[in-house]
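Can anyone check this?
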Amino acid sequence: MVFALRHPERVDRLILNGANLNAGGVKRSTQLPIEIGYSIARRFAGKSDSAKKNTELLGLMVNDPNVAPEELAGIQAPTLVIAGSRDMIKDAHTRLIASSIPNAELVILRGSHFVANKRPEEFNKAMISM
C-alpha cells in the first residue's frame, strides 16, 4: 500500500494479502504476544545481534504501517484485497481497506492469514481472475 501510494507510476496491479493499515487492525490475540516479544527483544537488542534483528522485525509489526483509510483513495491501480476467513487481521479492517481503495475487489478465502501458502490453488485463481 505504502509503495503504491508513494510510487503509483510503478504499480500496474496491487494484491493486498492479509493487509493492515496499523497495529489496531490486527486481532488482539495475535497482536499482544507480538508487542510483548517486541518489548523483550528491545531490552536485549544492545546485547545480541539476534535480539536486535528480532527487535527490527517485531517493530515492523508493532509500529508499521501507519496509513489512514482516506489515503487509500490515492491508489489507482486495480487492487485485489484478499484475506482468510480466520485471518489475524480483523474482518472489519480488511473490509475498510477494500472499501477505501477505488474499485478494489475483496475476496475472503476459507483459511487463515497464511491462505496463500495453505490454499494456493484458490489464492492463485482469485489473483488470475483480477
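Reply from J.R.: I decoded it. Strands lie at 14-17, 79-84, 105-109.
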